[in-house]
Every structure is written in structure tokens, then in C-alpha cells.
């Protein structure tokens, strides 16, 4: 078995009867039957699983039989323990014990199946928001598979109790924890997409700022070496800038301003138009400077 989780499952199932007896009174059962025998069964089953896996790798055994072969021994051992020491006790209804064992085994079987499900409205946990997200579906159902197997083993070991602690614990393991995990994964995916979208706006707005170089090269080729950029109330020039600095230096100043504005507007998730305030403004200013300098 390549997946080491099954080694843990084998050990837990092998000791499930012992755990149940220890938590509900062992009735004078020897330590050999409570500890040593389950340990022997666990080791034997794991070795059997390893040998079966090696045979499957050499095509001497179908891969689908490896897990059933390894799990058959601890499951049969657990059933035999329940039948011999637990189901014949008079302190609990026989039918209830049978149902409790069957329910636990069904939950373990479902837990094994959950990671193999594909997005569906009819199979798997009913998280409809994951139907179009197969990667998230797999991650959630993989975690749910572990939790369902753990719940089944706990039911075998500790029994089904009507105490609120155990009811809440099983509900948490079987549904609530996978539900919370799915919401967390969905939120992370949305944040990742949003971050990617913001980076896209930053790149586009930065390119537009640097595009002012082309504007001055194409439309401002007739500009004088010293370009007037400011006038007083009488229309006299009182501010100038070198043409080369205006053409090649100013766009990088625009770029810096754009970065500052982008950092300021990052909280505006819906108002994406704000990311383009700076580039559109500097493009308009560039054309205005060219127009006023050449008139």
C-alpha cells in the first residue's frame, strides 16, 4: 500500500474492540487479548499489505485486491472481538450493538470512497459551490475521507453515545470541519484571483504611463529643446523643462506616482477605474503640454 494512512487505519481497527472494552469495563479480559493480540494482528496485516503491494507491482496480483487483503484481517478480528466480548454483554441491547458496528463500518467504507468522487450533485458532500472547482472538490473530500474513517474508528472504539459531546464531535468530524475547510479554500482562491486581477491592472496602467514616451516622440518631435510647461496669469512663461527630461524622465516620475496611487486604491475592489486615474491623467497632460508649447 503506497498510502501510509491505511497503516494507521489498520492499527485503529485492530485496537477498536480493546479501546471499547477499556472505556466501558473490560470484564476481566486478559492483557494478552486486550493489547498483545491486537498488536500481532496489526503487524501481520501491515506486512500482508506490503507483500501484496510488492506482488501487485510485479503484476502477480491485481492492484485492486491489495487494500481488501490487508484490511480483511483487522476487520474480521474486530468483528470477532465484538461478537465474543461485546455483543454478548447484557448491559446493552444486542440489536443496538449490531447497528452501532454496522454504522461504524459503513462510515469507514464511505470515508474510503469520498476522495475518489468527482464533482456531482448526487454523490459526495453537498457543497454546491465546489461543483465547478474539481481541484477544491478533491481537497475537501480527501480531508473528509480521513475524518469519516476517524469517525468510524471512534464509533467502533467508543460506541455511539447520546451525550451531547459525542453528538457534536461526530457532526464536526463528518460535516462541519469539511464545510469550514471548503469555505476557507474558496476564499483563498478568490483572493488569489483578485490579486492576479490587481496585478493585471497595475501592469496595464504602468504601460500607459510609459506610453507617454511615445507620445512625446511622435507628437512632440517639433518641440524646442527647452519646453515651456507653466505660464503666469498674463500668459508669460515662468516654468520650463528640458525636452529630453520631459520625453524620457517624466514618464518614470509618472510611473512612481502610479505605484503610489495603486497602493492607495488596492482596497477599492469594485472601483477598478481608479487604477487608471493616473495613466489617463498623465496622457491628457502630455497632449496638453505639447499643444500649449507648439501653439
UniProtKB/TrEMBL annotation:
Keywords of the record: Membrane, Transmembrane, Transmembrane helix
InterPro entries named among the record's database cross-references: DUF1648, SdpI/YhfL
One Gene Ontology term from the biological process aspect of the record: response to toxic substance
Transmembrane as UniProt keyword: yes
Bilayer-crossing regions: 7-23, 35-53, 65-86, 98-115, 136-158, 164-187, 199-219, 245-263, 275-294
Occurrences of domain DUF1648 (ranges): 207-252
Listed PANTHER family: IMMUNITY PROTEIN SDPI
Name of the molecule in the record: SdpI/YhfL family / PF07853 family multi-domain protein
